[in-house]
Amino acid sequence: MNVLNKEVFNQTKKLLGLIVSNKLVNGFSKQFKSYMFQCPKFKPIVSTENNDTKMIYLCDTFKKETDIPDQLQTFIKENDVKVIEKDVSLNYNNFSYEQVLKTLLPKDVGIPFSFERIGHIIHVNLKDEQLPYKYIIGQAILDKNIQVRTVLNKVGEIDTVFRTFKIEILAGEPDLVAEIKENECIFRFNFEEVYWNSRLQYEHMELVNTFKKEDIICDMFAGVGPFALPAAKIKKCKIYANDLNPSSVKYMKENAKNNHLESKVEISNLDARDFVKFLVEKSIPFTQVIMNLPSTSIEFLDVFRDIFLNSTIPPPIPPPIINCYTFTKLDESSNLIKDTIKNVEDVIGAKVPSDCVCYEVRDVAPKKSMMRISFRMPTILPYVGPLTVNGTTQTQTTATATNNNNNTNTSSTTTTTTTTTTTTTTTITEPTTEPNNTNTSANNTDDQNNKKRNSTEDSNEINETDSKDTNKKLKN
Fold first, then answer.
1. Integer distance in angstroms from the first to the last C-alpha of the chain?
2. 51: which residues sit within 8 A by CB, 6+ positions away?
C-alpha cells in the first residue's frame, strides 16, 4: 500500500451533546474542558437554532447519560441543561498524524516521530521496515504539519567530502531551496547541495558566545556559515571562512550579503589545510579556529602540528584556540572525554593543555557521540617574529612570564609599527611543550570537562591597550 487513502477516515460518530445557555458557556469550557470532545479541526462548541444557547459535544467515552461524571451531572441538574444524542461526521482532517498512521500501518511498523525541519522542508530518516510505507508516511507528515511544502527521505550515507547525501521526495513540491532564521541570521541554501543540521542550532550559539569582539576567526569547514555569520553579526568578529564545497561557498557568500556582513566575512573555496597555510603565509593572526567536520576533523590537526610544534622554527603567529568537533566511540571500558583528548594528542604529537574544555554535544548513534574539544594550541618554541597587518610590517618580541594565579605560561608581546603612532600591548596564553611520546591524557581534565558548556577560559582573553608613544617598549 503506497497511497494514502483518506476515505478510510470518513465516519459518523454518535456523541452526547449539552444544550447550554450562552451565559454559562465560558464557565463550562473552563471547568469541564477535559470532558469536551477534542479532535483536530473540530469545534466542540457550536451554535444552535436558538440564538440564546450553544451545543457542547462531550467526549466519546460517554456513551450514555449514566456515563457522565457526578460533577458534570450536578452542573446539568442545577442549570436545567438538556442532554441529547447527536450524529457528527468526521473525515481525514479530523485525525492526528499519529492516529492516521496507527490506522494505516501494520502494528509491527513503528511510527516515525523524529524528523528535522529546515524551513518548508521536513527531512526524515526512515527505517527499513518503514520504507514500504514511505509515501503514506510522507503524505501524512505533509498534511499534518503547517507551513510544510516538501517531505524528503535520506537515501544512503553522507558523502565524506561535501557532507551531502542523496534524497528522495516522499510528498509535496520538489523545492529544495530552503530559507531559515537561526541565531539572528537568515540562511538560504539548497538542502540537497550543502550540509545543514538544524539540531546543532544551540551548539552553534554556544561556541559563538565564547568569542570576543577582538577575536579573528578561522572557520575551516564553514558550510553555509552557521558559525561564521552569527560570530560576525552578534560578536562583531572578523571572520575568515572556508569550505571545499563550491555550493556551500556560493550560498555562504549570498548569506553574508543578505545579512549585510560582506565586510566582516572573507570566504574561500580551498582545501582546509591549504586555507590555514594561506592565512599563516599572509600573517593573519587568527585567534580562534573552528573545525566542524566531525568525521575527519582530528586528521586536519596535523596542519597546526607542523606550524606550531616545529622544534627549529618559532610559530609565525601566536597560537590560537582550537575548537574541534569529532566523533568518539564509546564502549564499556572507555571514557568519552579521555578518549577524545587522546585522539587529539595522537595526531598533534603533544599533550593537550590541562585547561582544555571537552564535552559531549549529542548522541549520533548507539555508542557514538559528537564531541567538542577546545584548547590552546601548544608550541615548542615561543612566538617571536614579524607580523604583517594590512600590508604593514611590524616587529614583535615575546617575553615569557609566570602567571601566579593559574601557573600557566603567558607571553607579553610588544608591537612596534613604523607607519603609525600606536603601540599595542597584547597578553595571550601561549603554552609551550615538548613533543608527546606517550598516549597519556592531560592531567586534571575530568573535573573541568564535566562542566559542560561553560567554556570561557582565562586563556581566551586578549586585552588590548593603546599608547601614544610609538617606540615605547613593554616593561616586564
1. 80
2. none
What pLDDT, in 10s, does the model give residues 264-314? 999 999 999 999 999 999 999 999 999 999 999 999 999 999 999 999 999
Strands 321-329 and 357-365: unpaired
Q: Is the pTM of this model over 0.85?
A: no
CA 456, 458, 460, 463 dihedral sign is positive
The torsion angles phi and psi of 375, rounded to 5 degrees, stand at: -155, 150
How many residues make up the chain in this entry?
476
Q: What angle do CA 29, 34, 35 make, to 5 degrees?
A: 85
Residue-wise pLDDT for 225-234, tens only, equals: 999 999 999 9
Judge contact between 427 and 415, C-beta under 8 A.
Answer: no
Contact yes or no for 265/241 (Cβ under 8 A)? yes
**Higher confidence at residue 333 or residue 281?**
281
Can you list the alpha helix ranges (DSSP code H) found in 175-227? 201-208
Angle between helices 97-104 and 134-144 (to 10 degrees): 160
Under 8 Å between Cβ of 459 and 375: no
Contact 170, 115 (CB under 8 A): no
Nearest CA among 35, 46, 38, 26 for reference residue 72: 35
CA distance 215 to 238: 7
Partner residues linked to 240 by β-bridges? 218, 266
- Check if the beta carbon of residue 190 is closer than 8 Å to that of residue 247: yes
| Torsional sign, CA 253, 254, 257, 258 | negative
Give the type of residue at 440: T
Cell of 198: 538544524
Element (H, E) at 23: helix 22-31
